[in-house]
Amino acid sequence: xxxxxxxxxxxxxxxxxxxxxxxxINLTVNKGDALVILGRxxxxxSVTIECIVGLIEADKGTIEVFGTDITHLSNKELNKxxxxxxxxxxxxxxxxxxxxxxxxxxxxxxxxxxLSEEEIEKQINEALDSVGLRESIDKMPAELSxxxxxxxxxxxxxxxxxxxxxxxxxxxxxxxITSKEISELILSVQKKYQTTSLIITHDIVxxxxxxxxxxxxxxGLIYAEGTYDELVTNKDSWVRSxxx
Length: 244
Known about the structure:
244 residues; alpha/beta
């Protein structure tokens, strides 16, 4: 029996006023997949993943996550699904007034009630070890580089032990070397935690390193899909332009 997709989107539409962003997106993500979504700015990449976690309400279509259509769920029911999903925001989204330890503890306490202080400290250290930044536990966000903020953001995502991680432009604003390190970290997390990943990116190197499948959005629709090697040799010149 074929396993049910962990995410299944059918005929997803979303407009903002007269601006049509998504015009009938269809995609599936299976357990253990690392799906990369490429597209030009404004093509609907980020809107798609924001719909998946209910940050934006779709106009039409279905979004099944773990077999449940989330488009008509109450906020309480939606929160149960969200507890199983990690979201790495483009800017890291750390609380500036909290230290690294406090940022991670806040997320963990919000997610998992009744943990002892000892257990909280243990899980914070494990998450920071996973991103190679245990020594930064008492630093404030203002003391961290852009790459470190992304790593801490990922540690904060990992601490809730999500089954799915959604990455929104994980290498945006980083230099080439740091971008490669973040891509390697995404790979390491996928392997260590057996997560399912959906990665929104402009970064072709990141796409090649992290994705076992790539979709390209154009004008609010999935325009092309395949492996990196298949898309590089695609006959369509617009598709190939992403890889030149």
